[in-house]
Specification:
The protein is α/β, with parallel strands linked by helices and 67 residues long. The protein contains two helices and three strands. Helix 1 links the parallel strand 1 (10-14) and strand 2 (34-39).
Length: 67
């Protein structure tokens, strides 16, 4: 996929603090999406968002249950 595949798109990824959710969030952000990372463990979500932002992605971390 091209880097701008998801330009001007917004993605919400649950379970984004680690594992598959983190990797999905990272790939979406680095391909141009603005990503909201959600995880029950807020510390993991914040760390993931910092790492993605440092790599050049646009994201926001939100801790807690989403449903």
């Amino acid at each position: 996929m091209k880097e701008s595949t998801f330009k001007d798109q917004v993605a919400v990824v649950t379970g984004a603090g680690e594992g598959i959710g983190l990797e999905i969030a990272r790939r979406l952000a680095l391909q141009g999406a603005a990503v909201l990372l959600n995880d029950m463990n807020e510390e993991l979500a914040v760390k993931a968002a910092q790492d993605i932002s440092t790599a050049g992605g646009t994201c926001l971390a939100v801790g807690g249950r989403c449903c």
